[in-house]
Amino acid sequence: MTTSIRYLKMTLHCPSRGRVPVGYLSQYGDVLRVSFDADYIEDPQRPTLSLCYRGSSEQQTREILSAMRDARVVRNDGRWPAYFQNLLPEGHNRERLALERRCNPDDEFELLAAAGHDLMGALEVEPVPLSAGIPEAVRHWHAALGIDVLEPEFVASPVEDAASLPGVITKFSAVLEGRRYVVKRHGAAGSVILKLPTARHPELVANEYMGYQLARAVGLNCACAQIISKDQADLPDQVPFPQILAVQRFDRGQNGVRIHIEEFAQVLGYEPRHKYGKGLQEDYSAMLRIIDQLSVDPANDVQEFINRFVIFALMGNTDAHLKNWALRYENGVDPALSPLYDPVCVTAFFEDAPRADYGINRAIDAKLQEFSWDDLEDLLKRARIQRRSRLIQVAKGVIKQARADWPALLQDAPDNMRRSIMGRLAGGIQLAR
Fold first, then answer.
1. pTM of this prediction exceeds 0.85
2. What is the dihedral of CA 378, 379, 381, 386, to 10 degrees?
3. pLDDT, tens digit, for every residue of 284-308?
4. Which long-range contacts (CB under 8 A, 24 or more apart) does 292-296 make?
5. Which residues contact 100 (CB under 8 A, 6 or more apart)?
């Protein structure tokens, strides 16, 4: 095995403290390791990287952060621990990033290094000059295992204007300059996500934009999105689609300030390939319990979560997996439920698709169609949520409002989306009966 090591420095942008050193990410052969700085470990007011690194007490948190073999901090299969895997893009976005870096799409160290200046949330990773030597936090772990690391290996700087945006739909990180959305940001972190439709579903932009309108009509807290023409965006390649969805990033504030967020896949420790989780009752009850116990505004966030769940069922959004729910750390430490994003009516795509397509989504839809108010009561009990009757009463009011207001809005929706949702409004799912 080589005796050299590659490593990256981690920094969290915190609203009240600026750039806070967190630790290092290192690669030694197939071993990928997270090493936290002693100052970060010992700081009880540390900014939150992820709830997956937080224990039930301060002592337990320090034990997690300083662990030697915990899967949350080290892997020996060439993959990052789950939190960092979820920072990386999927599908075409991953292939594009690998091409920009001139690395293999499976090289997770290089992919993260390539996009280190524009990751989801407030985390930034960057190489350190070779002259700095191997940091003590990195050397200590290897020495404890009897591994003699002789020298650091060069790591290239992040690719200018590269970004890592989780998800499979083709998207770009951009900034708004005047009236144009510019992907070539000259190293600045993006503040807008530009999402393209697909050749198979050219109506995807209109579908998702209508999803935002429907959600906002019933009072849900949504990310800001608008449809723009491709002529309003300076993209690196020509695209055949006339329209693009521009979504304002809620992990960016005024003047590009970074606000930390994390997906629930990261919170619960699921790798991206397991983003659909273990099951609705188990995963959603875990999410609700976390929100109820840790949110800065638990009453409102629990109600918002329930309202979104029933509206997603009514909307036919069967892709509300664990990467499409997130927490936002506005003060850098304490979580709150993030704004809603990716509200796509996936069931609209079933209409003309072969029965074998969308297998996971069809299975989820079958469960959502039969999901009842009694099932929601059981879900809340499992999450140990109090005031259940009131929460369900409010959610029923949201469904009633949707049935009253959505038909008019849906006149402007793609035909397959309108047909799918109107059928659900008419009693196609238990929650609307």
1. yes
2. -120
3. 999 999 999 999 999 999 999 999 9
4. 292/383, 292/384, 292/385, 294/51, 294/334, 294/335, 295/334, 295/335, 295/336, 295/337, 296/330, 296/331, 296/334, 296/335, 296/336
5. 114, 159, 162
